[in-house]
Amino acid sequence: MKQSMMPSLVDLKRHARTVPEIHPQEVLAMLTILQAAGTIQSRIMDVLQRDYRLSEGKLYVLIQLHQSPEGHAPSLLAERAGITRASVSVMLRNLEEDGLVTLADDEEDRRAKRARLTGKGRALMEKVLPEHYLRITKLMGRLTTEEQKTLTGLLEKLAG
Predict the structure, then answer these.
(1) Domain locations in the chain?
(2) Is the distance from CB of 139 to CB of 44 less than 8 angstroms?
(3) Distance between CA atoms of 150 and 139, rounded to whole angstroms?
């Protein structure tokens, strides 16, 4: 959310008069967190999209496959990436067309498919991941270790 799109404290107080359970400062705090998260996510993901044509979903699927050389069923990839099975099916077909993934019958259950990284896919991840993790490291390096722990704890508390 762009700063110009943020409601003013005056607007929030006006809404709070109508709905007393609204706490303007809490709303502003959360909207600021969401705005910062969007900016951070863009800084990290825009490079992957621009340089490698990798969306966030594709990255998560490729990371899962990179971590498991034996591959995964598309349904498990969908669950872990937080996307629908239909979306992961389309994504895997596109990744297969790009030569990054193979889809083959599962050796244990011939009715099922298993996705695996190809050599090209593994090489891409070996290039992309260190750069990706370095961007994250540089970003988080703005905070002390103690600040990182505090931030992580506060975000987990909000998410919980």
Answers:
(1) 1-52, 53-160
(2) yes
(3) 16
- The two tokens of residue 138 are 């540089």
Q: Evaluate the CA torsion angle 146, 47, 119, 64 in order and state its sign.
A: positive
Give the containing element (helix H, strand E) for 130: helix 119-140
Helix or strand holding residue 105 (H, E)? strand 101-105
The CATH fold assigned to 53-160 is: Arc Repressor Mutant, subunit A (1.10.10)
> For the segment 74-120, what is each residue's pLDDT rounded down to a tens digit?
999 999 988 899 999 999 999 999 999 999 987 777 778 899 999 99
Per residue in 42-73, pLDDT tens? 999 999 999 999 998 899 999 999 999 999 99
Cα(130)–Cα(123) distance, integer angstroms: 12
